[in-house]
Write a structure and sequence with these properties.
single chain, about 375 residues, alpha/beta, Aspartate Aminotransferase, domain 2, Aspartate Aminotransferase, domain 1, 2 domains, seven-stranded mixed beta sheet, three-stranded antiparallel beta sheet, 16 strands, about 30% helix, globular, binds pyridoxal-5'-phosphate, EC 2.6.1.52, pyridoxine biosynthesis, cytoplasm
């Protein structure tokens, strides 16, 4: 069988063993006589699947009872509105701070503007010279020390991995460092959720569309401190009220049951590898292999500030954009799929999520070398 490697930004590659188990259990889940898709979301079987998925996820993240793990719908995009409806009234001032670093954080900001007064705590929306190199807007990141956070803000929002630009905050800020001792930190982690072993004591809420790195499309994962629940605006639909979803164990109404089942299998697969510390090491090794090669030649180029390059989404260009189509066609022939860059950036993008083994990155680098030899 021909070997394929899928570099799609999302929906994206899933672990082969997970897909195989799902295939084996498709018609009859563990002797229940039903496919997971056919089960009542209130029945004992699905309740077990959902409870286990939440518990495994909490275990992976190292969060205890003081946190709620929620599965919702609407994607990360819906969260951009659901978030302010739930948290903007945490404090009297009904205001929130946003850090702007690329497409997704800007979308989050624009969506939330309708719900209250917002401030921009930091932005990479200008070009900047760093160590003698000029970086274009959204191709670098404002350091934590530059963030100016309003202490009266109900929360501070940022996107920790910009999927399109390929810029990533590798670490979490310390709240004192950014002057946010009493401001909850909310992160859109969609495209590097479960890619790094973070100390979540430093933050207050994460959200992620599962389809990037943690499962199939259809579920949005919210991990939130329970102390933040209960200040939801009354205009917010009940299905989007974090407290009500938490009280109902993510089954306030019919959840996307099959997506939860697959995501649960992904969590078990990650736990079996030794958890997120082991996963992060593998991810770093994959990213380094690709960046090292891109940096070793003038034929390809990655235009992101080196300290903030994403280990998940690696955009790169060929020095002569006229070669892009040929590169992509040849890649497809070699079984290297979905490498076309986002239309706003151009060039190529390799998304090397958790489920992409290092062999896939090796195959990509081998093809890139070969293409350079023939066209350089
Ligand atoms: C893809 C993506 C989104 C949008 O996700 P949907 O699930 O399609 O709404 C938001 N933020 C980030 C960082 C993303 O990568």
């Amino acid at each position: 069988m021909k070997q394929f490697w899928n570099f799609s930004a999302g929906p994206s590659v899933l672990p082969k063993v997970v897909l195989q188990q799902a295939a084996d259990e498709m018609l009859d889940w563990q002797g229940s006589g039903q496919s997971v898709m056919e089960m009542s979301h209130r029945g004992a079987e699905f309740t077990q699947i959902c409870t286990e998925a939440e518990a495994d996820l909490a275990k992976l993240l190292g969060v205890g009872e003081e946190w709620a793990v929620l599965f919702m719908q609407g994607g990360a995009t819906a969260q951009n509105a659901i978030l302010p409806m739930n948290l903007l009234d945490l404090k009297e001032a009904q205001t929130a701070d946003y850090v702007l670093t690329g497409s997704w954080s800007n979308k989050a900001y624009k969506e939330a503007v309708g719900y209250g007064e917002l401030r921009i705590a930091a932005s990479s929306g200008d070009s900047r010279v760093i160590d003698g190199v000029e970086y274009k807007p959204w191709h670098w990141l404002p350091e934590f020390s530059e963030w100016r956070v309003n202490p009266e803000a109900s929360y501070l929002h940022y996107c920790s991995n910009e999927t399109i630009g390929g810029v990533e905050f590798a670490d979490l800020p310390n709240k004192e460092q950014i002057g946010a001792e009493n401001v909850p930190l909310v992160l859109d982690v969609s495209s590097h959720f479960l890619a790094r072993d973070w100390d979540l004591n430093k933050v207050d809420m994460l959200y992620a569309g599962a389809q990037k790195n943690a499962g199939p499309a259809g579920i949005t994962v919210i991990v939130i401190r329970r102390e933040l629940l209960g200040k939801c605006r009354s205009v917010c639909p009940d299905v989007f009220n974090y407290q009500k979803v938490a009280e109902a164990n993510s089954c306030f109404n019919t959840p996307p049951t099959y997506s939860i089942y697959i995501a649960g299998l992904v969590y078990k697969w990650l736990l079996a590898q030794g958890g997120l510390a082991a996963v992060e090491q593998k991810n770093k090794a994959k990213a380094q292999l690709l960046y090292d090669y891109v940096d070793s030649t003038d034929f390809y180029n990655n235009f992101v500030q080196p300290e903030h390059r994403s280990i998940m989404n690696v955009p790169f260009i060929i020095h002569d954009a006229a070669l892009d189509a040929k590169f992509l066609a040849g890649a497809k022939e070699q079984g290297l799929l979905n490498l076309k860059g986002h239309k706003s950036v151009g060039g190529m993008r390799a998304s090397i999520y958790n489920a992409m083994p290092i062999e896939g990155v090796e195959a990509l680098v081998a093809y890139m070398k070969d293409f350079e030899r023939q066209n350089g």
